[in-house]
Amino acid sequence: MKNYTIPIIIVVAITISGGTFLLLRRNGAEETNGIEQPLDANTVVIQNYEFSPSVIRIKQGDTVTWTNRDSVQHNVAHNSFESPLLRRGETYQYTFNAPGTYEYHCSPHPYMVGTVIVEEV
Fold first, then answer.
1. Domain annotation covers residue 105
2. CA–CA separation, 9 vs 46, rounded Å?
3. pLDDT at residue 47 above 50?
4. Which domain holds residue 50?
5. pLDDT tens-digit profile of 57-90?
6. Which residues contact 60 (CB under 8 A, 6 or more apart)?
7. 113 occurs within a structural domain
8. I want to staple 47 with a disulfide (CB 3.0 to 4.6 A). Which of 51, 54, 69, 87 is the partner?
9. Cα-flanking dihedrals φ and ψ of residue 19, to 5°?
């Protein structure tokens, strides 16, 4: 009978170190429902054909950043603003100076919708 202790220890060590690497690589992000979420409250992630969070509440004068993590191009469109098509990894920022509710969508995928609620300061 062969001794499998050494190979098992090696496999466990590689698994643990790989998991640690992945945790460190995430750079301060958490994952919810398979969508990686930045910890910045004013960031919306575009992934899996969704805006996440779909509703974001900010203060007047705050800037929202949308980050595309999908392999396809998306944009952010509203009557007051429209981003160009964003490739994977690209971002778009918009500063909301007026209070109100801003419902936006992705032009190529109109079923993708989100809302920014801007509270008066």
1. yes
2. 40
3. yes
4. 34-119
5. 999 999 999 999 999 999 999 999 999 999 999 9
6. 96, 97, 98, 99, 118, 119, 120, 121
7. yes
8. 69
9. -65, -40
Strand 113-119 versus strand 55-59 pairing type: parallel
Instruction: Tell me the helix, strand and coil percentages in the chain, rounded to 5.
Output: 15, 40, 40
Distances (CA, A) of 69 to 52, 88, 104: 11, 5, 18
Peptide bond preceding 53 in cis form (omega within 30 of 0): yes
Q: How many domains does the chain have?
A: 1
CB 107 within 8 A of CB 72: no
Q: Which two tokens stand for residue 55?
A: 């509703």
Q: Residue 112 belongs to a domain with what CATH number? A: 2.60.40.420
Q: Which two tokens stand for residue 26?
A: 């995430």
58 within 8 A of 117, measured Cβ to Cβ: yes
- Name the pLDDT band for 40 (thresholds 50, 70, 90): confident
Instruction: State the chain's mean pLDDT as an integer.
Output: 81
At 62, list the tokens: 């705050």
- Interatomic CA distance for residues 58 and 22, integer angstroms: 31
Q: Looking at the domain assignment, is residue 75 inside a domain?
A: yes
